[in-house]
Amino acid sequence: MNNPLADRIRPKEISEVVGQKHLLTPGKALYNMIENGEIPNLIFYGPSGVGKTTVASIIANKTKRSLRRLNGTTASTQDIKDIVAELDTFTAPNGILLYLDEIQYFNKRQQQTLLEYIENGKITLIASTTENPYFYVYSAILSRSTVFEFKSISAEDIMPAVQRGFDFLSEENGIDIECEDGVVKRIAYGCGGDVRKALNSVENCYLATSAKDGKKLIKLETATELAQKSSLRYDRDGDEHYDIVSAYQKSMRGSDPDAALHYLARLLEAGDLPSACRRLMVCACEDVGLAYPQIIPIVKAAVDIAQAVGLPEAEIPLADAVILVATSPKSNSANNAIKAAMSDVKKGNIGPIPRQLQNKHYDGEDAEVKGQHYIYPHSYPNHWTYQQYLPDAIKNTKYYEYGENKNEQAYKAYWDRIKGKK
After folding, report:
1. Quick one: DSSP state of residue 229?
2. More confident residue, 280 or 267
3. Which of 135, 143, 134 is nearest to 114 (CA)?
4. Residues 388, 374: Cα–Cα separation, whole Å
């Protein structure tokens, strides 16, 4: 059985690599390293299907080193030792370039095993990961490596690769291939920035199309059916998940309804209704808050409806609520206040609860002042009178500062008048 099309047409030169212009154009650091043939230990960070393995293969060819591949999900410490055993033998006369895919799945001990050999230069490590290496890669490996981030590839950049895939299949099989208008674009836009998935779709379209008169006509209908769904690089435990939900809330906080709807759509397309609902409710409380306090039960009602009807209809009440949150006046005064209060509590700035607020109604013999002496506010004009509520140690502390919005300024004016403040 043939290797996948993506492997059969893997670029042999840097100039053939799709995308990654920020890394692979003349003058860029990685490009210069490859051209000079002197490669340090590298970590390639980025989503799958964007050229990390391809670039590692090109580097191995340029440096005349023996390429060995391991995958962090299946490799063991013994696999590393087996590679080390090849050093200084006829199978690896110029040293070894070890391409370790998914290094984040290597535990600390496995990563430590590599250290001695990457330090003496006999093994050059190129590790790849789809997760942030600063969180997942052992610090000793990081300190001896240079990190390069690979980006998702735009559909426009993928279109030539799709066409090249059809051309390759045509030449490989000795048959003319013609594509209906829109086929190449549909495949390029349907792969979520993953060249490998795009080329898989190309091959699937070829295999699903019957030849007629020595030619295959790839129909748009076939491409639409077989092109992989937009493939939103989405792993609920991965960086992309946190990036999307972060952008979702920050867009609502930043009062940009269009961006907020975009990230809501990405969450819902990935089927992540819980995250969409949770962050929406948090944003209503944290970022709108007291500027429009009525929004909190409104958003909760929209979330309840969304969870009751489920997807896809859930998108309608959630869109209503997201637009409402994004376009509402903003205040984080309550959020700032509770964070300040929590900080004091964590630091131990507490003290005994004032006697007048305690629940007990009797005093011990050692009490200097007998009686609770609680003042009932409703017995006074405007339902307020002064008494101390905070513990003595922090009795003058201010956590809450009124926001500049209409609602909070109205509350401030009311209490300034009641409390006799100017």
Report:
1. P
2. 280
3. 143
4. 10
